[in-house]
């Protein structure tokens, strides 16, 4: 399931921070490593995990194929947002039912 892949990838703090940085727009791998204080090999491992989870996509500018630019893919985050909204609705409904029950018991 894609939601499971998304949540597993985002369980790691550096990956969450990478996603936060990419929310502002595409960035080069080196920029991401520098912003996170990671070595290039460590950043590469995190970006690979995010690519495998399909959270990010990689492109190369036409002027230099060695440069890797990463950008967020919108679909996995939209699925995560929909799942979180449904969970929030469920818990809100449950808490409202509990409130009604407690108030009815107090009367």
UniProtKB/TrEMBL annotation:
Database matches in InterPro entries: ArsR-like_HTH, HTH_ArsR_DNA-bd_dom, WH-like_DNA-bd_sf, WH_DNA-bd_sf
HTH arsR-type domain sequence ranges: 1-92
GO molecular function: DNA-binding transcription factor activity
Coiled-coil residues: none
NCBIfam families: HTH_metalloreg
Record protein name field: Transcriptional regulator
Organism: Caulobacter endophyticus
């Amino acid at each position: 399931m894609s939601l499971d892949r998304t949540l597993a990838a985002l369980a790691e703090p550096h990956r969450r921070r990478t996603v936060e940085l990419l929310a502002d727009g595409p960035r080069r791998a080196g920029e991401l490593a520098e912003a996170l204080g990671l070595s290039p090999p460590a950043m590469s491992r995190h970006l690979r995990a995010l690519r495998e989870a399909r959270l990010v996509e990689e492109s190369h500018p036409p002027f230099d194929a060695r440069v890797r630019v990463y950008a967020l893919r919108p679909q996995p985050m939209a699925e995560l947002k929909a799942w979180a909204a449904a969970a929030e609705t469920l818990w809100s409904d449950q808490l409202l039912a509990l409130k009604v029950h407690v108030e009815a018991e107090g009367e």
